[in-house]
Amino acid sequence: MHCPFCRHGDSRVVDSRTAEDGASIRRRRQCPECSRRFTTVETTSLSVMKRSGAVEPFSRDKIISGVRKACQGRPVSEDDLALLAQQVEEAVRATGVAEVDAHEIGLTILGPLRALDEVAYLRFASVYQGFCSLEDFEAAITALREDRAERDEAESLT
Ligand SMILES: [Zn+2]
């Protein structure tokens, strides 16, 4: 790691601490040449491969802006969106891959979004699962209804 001040090619770590969410480490470094200190943040890299073939770093903000569109007019708060993006990132990181397909992320969003808001889920699923007919919507709605019935049944048993 180059010193950002004098470009010396080496630095010494003087302090390391893990961020609260456990996803990154901040290190204080000192340059042995000019003695100035700087901070670096390390995260495991997670890249997203877009349909165009372009690769970009994973971004929770992108998840949020994508989902926000589907949530227009729905009772979903910014906190809900932030939590959803965190859940998606955790789910993707848990798979242990360094590069994930954008489409895969879209599919990963479906689970938590469905728990959050069924209408937003249907809107989002229609894009990511390529709904092209009323029958596709019908099938998705039927699946939601069946799950809901199962859930109600499970609740009535407890
Ligand atoms: Zn330096």
TrEMBL record:
Keywords from the named record: ATP-binding, DNA-binding, Metal-binding, Nucleotide-binding, Repressor, Transcription, Transcription regulation, Zinc, Zinc-finger
Single biological process term from Gene Ontology: negative regulation of DNA-templated transcription
Domain ATP-cone: residue ranges: 46-136
Pfam assignment, any one: ATP-cone
A GO molecular-function annotation: DNA binding
Organism superkingdom: Bacteria
UniProt zinc finger (unnamed) residues: 3-34
Cofactor: Zn(2+)
UniProt cofactor note: Binds 1 zinc ion.
Family: Belongs to the NrdR family.
Cited function: Negatively regulates transcription of bacterial ribonucleotide reductase nrd genes and operons by binding to NrdR-boxes.
Protein name per UniProt: Transcriptional repressor NrdR
Species the sequence originates in: Ruania alba
